[in-house]
Amino acid sequence: MTENPNIQSVADVGLVGLAVxxxxxxxxxxxxxxxxxxxNRTTEKMTEFIDKxxxxxxxxPRMSGQAxxxxxxxxxxxxxxxxxxxxxxxxTDAVIDQxxxxxxxxxxxxxxxxxxxxxxxxxxxxxxxxxxxxVGSGVSGGELGARFGPSLMPGGPLDxxxxxxxxxxxxxxxxxxxxxxxxxxxxxxxxQGGEPCTAHIGSDGAGHYVKMVHNGIxxxxxxxICEAYFLMKSLLGMEADEMSEVFAEWNxxxxxxxxxxxxxxxxxxxxxxxxxxxxxxYVLDTAGQKGTGKWTSTSALDMGVPANAMAEAVxxxxxxxxxxxxxxxxxxxxxxxxxxxxGKTKLLDAIHDALxxxxxxxxxQGFQLMNAAQAEYHWTLDFGSIARIWRGGCIIRAAFLQKxxxxxxxxxxxxxxxxxxxxxxxxxxxxxxxxxxxxLAAENGVPCPAFMSALAYFDGYRAKVLxxxxxxxxxxxxxxxxxxxxxxxxxxxxxxxxPEKGRPMIEA
Length: 508
Ligand code: NBP
What we know:
Elements: E1 13-16, H1 20-31, E2 36-39, H2 43-56, E3 63-65, H3 69-74, E4 81-84, H4 90-100, E5 108-111, H5 117-129, E6 133-140, H6 142-148, E7 151-155, H7 158-171, E8 174-175, E9 181-182, E10 195-196, H8 206-236, H9 240-250, H10 258-267, H11 292-303, H12 308-321, H13 323-332, H14 344-377, H15 383-389, H16 400-410, H17 421-444, H18 449-461, H19 468-479, E11 496-497, E12 506-507
Parallel strand pairs: 1-2, 1-4, 2-3, 4-5, 5-6
Antiparallel strand pairs: 6-7, 8-9, 8-10, 11-12
Helix pairs in contact: 1-6, 8-11, 8-12, 8-14, 9-10, 11-12, 12-18, 14-17, 14-18, 15-16
Bound molecules: nicotinamide 8-bromo-adenine dinucleotide phosphate (NBP).
Nicotinamide 8-bromo-adenine dinucleotide phosphate binds next to helix 1, helix 4 and helix 6.
């Protein structure tokens, strides 16, 4: 690259993409003492950002902007470290192509967007062939996480990780020795000490895969909380502020998590427009989605992993989006009318247990999926470490994750989280209530698909016998797909000519 002689290579790191995530990540990096140079395709956004930083941010001396792409690259110290925070997909490819044409072998490009892991595998290989390091790093925690400490899931060559490790460990969320987040939301005064919520996940697309599963778990975690809320509302007639208190109380126990905390907060907010009632009761009941939940479920289907509850959470959003159809159907498709249930405290405790048991199943599915993916893509994933870096910064941060870390620490070859003694005990203790809640919901016509599929997963996983004998017989009947026999060794396949249309059965 022909460099502009007026540009000095002073920046420790460069960042491309100044929408909400890029701006916040740049500020977080500068807060930690690194000099960041930023670039954005639309130059005005960059100049506006730099002007604002100069006026308001304590880290301003460590932030600069460049309008010209070559000057931007030239202003970074070698080996260059360049973070991309642009729209996933075509936007990321466009920036990588621009960078690949001018950076040098040994430089490190980091994609912090929500890339699909297969794209990351492709990009890593293309850049490796040119001698350029590529890291696909999951960044979780939304805009606040990016600003004050996200959970970071980097994948790629170990060499590349070692280059970005000082920055990544500095800017990541921190947890104390009990796994509790240490937070500071004061610009220029980041949280001190603690264990950083980042670790090298594995080669090429491993980081983005794990981030995708994080989002899949986020979908089901949210759906389960919404079902608990809906049961309280439908079967106990509770008002939002009363439910807020229940969630706040649950946040002190085994369910303690960011999502339960924000639920308690949301439910107590009054409507700012009407000045009466609660805001949540005015929010239209249709949920959007950006695709990572769908990717997780598609990946589970591709690999034959029974992540039914995770998929259910995606379908629940799809069903919610059919608002007009649902309103019309509500007038013609009849079902039971939800009856108010007596024994409020007892039912609330049962909903709590149903939520906890379903959550265990959801996480079991997420980890089962990552286990299948590591075999498929030749990664070596450390599940204890993954749970550890999700304890702070990210949307699914929860006290619960420490128990997952402990479970994999005790048994690194654990094949399903439900089998770990701690979780097995919790499932045994909570299942009676869980079943009661699910049957009450069914009897009263209250939809709670995630509670139900999680329970079906639990019962299916622990079933010595399933009706798949009949299913396989059906397959052999119409398609000669063969079957194995209970009274013969595994791997021997049989076919019979079934007595279709009166023919006698012939063992083939
Ligand atoms: P967006 O995903 O909305 O992307 C906007 C940025 O991409 C702008 O800087 C825009 O530049 C740039 N861009 C686009 Br669009 N096409 C480009 C191209 N062809 N070449 C160069 N730049 C291009 O921003 P975001 O919400 O900050 O998210 C950034 C990344 O982080 C995404 O991959 C997202 O999925 C991921 N992520 C987001 C969140 C979140 O909570 N928002 C959380 C975790 C991860 P312009 O100004 O010139 O249009």
